[in-house]
Write a structure and sequence with these properties.
Layout: H1 2-19, H2 21-40, H3 50-60, H4 64-71, H5 75-78, H6 87-102, H7 104-110, H8 114-144, E1 147-148, E2 151-152, H9 159-186, H10 191-202, H11 204-217, H12 222-244, E3 246-252, E4 255-258, E5 261-264, E6 267-273, H13 280-299, H14 305-313, H15 319-340, H16 343-352, H17 364-399, H18 407-445
Helix pairs in contact: 2-9, 2-10, 6-7, 6-8, 6-13, 7-8, 8-9, 8-13, 9-10, 10-18, 12-18, 13-14, 13-15, 15-17, 16-17
Length: 446
Amino acid sequence: MSSAAEQLAANMNFGAFSKATELKKRIWFTLGALIVYRLGTYIPLPGIDPVVLNDIFSQQSGGILGMFDMFSGGALGRMTIFALNIMPYISAAIIMQLMTSVSPKLAALKKEGESGRKIINQYTRYGTVVITALQAFGIAAGLEGMTSSAGSAVIDPGAFFRFTTVVTLVGGTIFLMWVGEQITARGIGNGISLIIFAGIVANLPSALAGTLELGRTGALSTLLIVLLLAMSVGVIFFIIFVERAQRRLIVQYPKRQQGNKMTGGESSHLPLKVNTAGVIPPIFASSILLMPITVIGFSAGTGPEWLNTVAALLGRGQPLYLAIYISLIVFFAFFYTAVVFNPADTADNLKKYGGFIPGIRPGKNTSEYLDRVLTRLTVTGSAYLAAVCLLPEILISQYSVPFYFGGTSLLIVVSVTLDTVAQIQSHLLAHQYEGLIKKSKLKGRK
């Protein structure tokens, strides 16, 4: 019986999808925007010798630069116009969210609704330009100091090369920021997350082929490869299980008499996700780590001794790197949860509409109860994020397996996939409701 019902639901979904013209337009727009992004990851910066750069980067890809290359979809390794990807925008968004918590002016703007949000987004864009320019200048200076046996990575170093590199990288990041916003507004899913998702997924086949090649040459044992693939599958199932996990709080609404009728008295649920922050904490943590370490990685070996020491301490799998990474994940898990869910506002809304949690008095007591429950859930969620991101990090650093099988990349891929599928389902549901409303109106006219 259940299989027949599932088949019927699948047929209904397929039929609804075939008739959902607006949804299909959104999906095609999203795919087109992502194709444009992928094409841009193959347009190189002017003045770069790709052969020398590939030789240099292959020697440093096992460290933090390899992780940045994963997020950029291979654009950093090829040193293309999208080498910095969308990471400067994420860094600017982090800074703005932190500032809204400490600046009364920005906090007031946030409470103004849509108009305040537009102003904050504009400040975020300005911050993106500044951060991208600083990172681009650091990359340009680092590239000029890179040499290999085949020569220098920069064909004609100097002020003109640095200027063109900064302008090109800033333009590339601003363009990606615009593409991400267009996907969010006119496509399906969160545009920024989908850009990172597309970069990771695009290189998964080559990463899998590279891993199998390491097994063929004997660099990795067959048992280790099997364990790695099994671990990846297990991590995916674990991520899906936790991402769908919820704590449902019962909300009761009192009965009310309106004229001769009694209304209300029903109960509903207030769902609280175990991982309220989603995939944001690992992305934020990686972005914060990558912002200073990218420049250090490029200049390590040619800079002062203390810079080389910092680069060594912040290497892949080093205790300091892991400690900072976990600390940032836990911090951003609590911080972003506090940003997206306000217990006081939720308690006020429940009180406004007459809802209450059984056994808890409305108002301040409800707010404190929600805060307590949310804190416990966030502790569990942050521990889950730290475990998912930490264990593969150790495996990657010890056995030099590809970054694409790490916890952060799998978490991004699975979470973005679940969110996008949920949005598609919501569009299908809305389309079905629109069809029912139109049919009821036609029947009413008859």
